[in-house]
Amino acid sequence: MNLPAPVDSTEPTRPKPILFLVADDPAVLGALEADLSRRFANDCRILREKTASSALVTLGSLMERSEPVALLVANDRMDEMPGIEFLSRAHALHPSAKRVLLVERDYTADNPIVPAMMLGKIDYHLVKPWSPEQGLFPAVSGFLSDWAETQAPSFKMFQIVGPPSSARGHQIRDLLTRMTTPYAYHADDSPTGKAILRQVGENGARLPVAVRHDGRVLVDPTDSDLVRAVGGGTHLKEGVYDLVIVGAGPAGLAAAVYAASEGLDTVVLERGISGGQAGTTSRIRNFPGFTWGISGQEFAYRACEQAWLFGANLVFTQEVKSLRVSGAERILTVADGRRVAARSVLLATGASWRRLGIEKLEERTGAGVFYGAAVTEARAMEGLDVCVVGSGNSAGQATQHLAKYARSVTLLARSKSLRANMSEYLVSELAHTPAVRVRLGVEIVDGNGRERLEALTIRDRETGSTEEIETSALFVLIGAEPHTEWLADAVQRSGRGYILTGLDLMRDRRHVERWPLTRPPLPLETSVPGVLAAGDVRYRSIKRVASAIGEGATAIQLVHQYLASPEAWARQRVGTLA
């Protein structure tokens, strides 16, 4: 079959990004410029100024010429103004630039970078004196990488054509964004959209249409079609795996890394794309080892690559529908009817955001109403008024991320205080962000708009009075529900659907009676021997990325312990679990 010619997505050569350095200490400025030039001069322009005032003048000129300033690096102590104040003024001229404060090493809470980072006044810091090879170069490379991710990439793997307000179009954009796959989305009635459809011989009767960079055309593609088109796995082998991991969030990915690296024949089944709820978070700041945080997308990408390199088989867009036991094997059935057999199973399906249940808002999901953190649509909110509903850390992080682009962000919370569910650093950041308004003690009762969301009706929970507020988008982050409905009675669950494990199984006589072995269940083991649970799906788990990763790693040690005692299978009461 002859494929149509690739869609021409070439763009003019872009100017080099600018590293802008400011320090009134000649020795510091000279050393910094010299070291950065050795590594980055070929790919970046390095500009320097000795005073804050002259630097602001130069930055103003660069703004007028639309020059791309990637990094603003300022010495902490300068005579004219502190480095933090300079970075604030400079950021107003170049809001996409990353702000870097150059400081003396000082591990005390009095160090200015502590409140500056907490309140969002700087993005990163560098320590004096620095080691070019070990400290400076890796850090600056990371800063530039983060900046580049905020810029529209010149290469697009996909050109997508679809309705401008399409729920399926949003789902595809979200999928490709979470797979870190560059794409462009064109309205089907736009000149570019029409031209692409003509070029690939489509009349627009079936949308969306995705055109890969090599000319391959996908008409109204499924998620599996798109995963395969970018090289993702959907293959399941015959035979029995040592371990099947259900879910590719932090717990599942950590387990895959450890299981595969320790020689277990491992497959990961994920109904969507890797990352779980954490994958939609714009920046995970409290994850140990990542000084300036890491985006959920980057974490998921790195963990997938790591698990794959160790030999794990990662299979995406494969929803598991049932679990049963057949002797020593645990049998999982996926949506297309295929069966996967394993000697052990780890359930790491996580949880999803609760729905508002308001008909007019549910109808506009993907067309102004979005569940989860605001990663995909944030840039599209530039200059608009938007709302976030929720009172936890994810709601606070989404509000901060949106405030970088939107004209205003209103955070709506049912509670009278954010401090009960939100980290103190986020509460402080929100209070010091001019574009953010917090409304406490309110709830959403209705929504309005023709094709897209245009307004919300909110009610004061104390007085009962209602008011309508105009908004272009609503991001809903009101808690999570575990993905366990498919398990039915296969394993014991709490009243809210979370999976019971370990000692929690022993606290209820009904669960004790169902336990088939003479030994007690392992700490993360469910009511079915050899089937474990980790992460947010587990009852009483700590809802943190690091905790989920820890549970995923711990689960593999328990899997080894279980597999090392095959005689335990013989002691099962026949028929109890079948």
Specify the helix fraction band: 25-40%
**Structural class computed from helices and strand pairing:** alpha/beta
Distance between the termini: 49 Å
Q: Which superfamily, in CATH terms, is the homologous superfamily of the largest domain?
A: FAD/NAD(P)-binding domain
The residue ranges in which pLDDT falls below 50 over 5 or more consecutive positions are: 1-6, 569-578
User: What kind of sheet is the major sheet?
Assistant: 7 strands, mixed
CATH topology of the largest domain, by name, is: FAD/NAD(P)-binding domain
Q: Please, what is the average pLDDT?
A: 87
Spatial shape? globular
CATH class of the largest domain: Alpha Beta
How many helices does DSSP assign?
Answer: 17
Care to count the β-strands? Answer: 26
CATH architecture annotation of the largest domain: 3-Layer(bba) Sandwich
- The proportion of strand residues reads 15-25%
C-alpha Rg (nearest Å) = 26 Å
How many domains comprise the coordinates? 4
Structure, described:
The structure is a single chain. By secondary structure, the protein is an alpha/beta fold. 30% of the residues lie in helices and 23% in strands. It contains 17 helices and 26 strands. The strands form 6 sheets. Strands 10, 11, 12, 13, 14, 15 and 26 form a 7-stranded mixed sheet that branches. Strands 2-1-3-4-5 form a 5-stranded parallel sheet, sandwiched between helices. β13 (320-326) and β14 (329-334) form a beta hairpin. α2 (52-64) runs parallel beside α3 (83-93), α9 (250-261) packs parallel to α10 (296-310) and α9 (250-261) crosses α16. The radius of gyration is 26 Å and the shape is globular. The two termini are 49 Å apart.
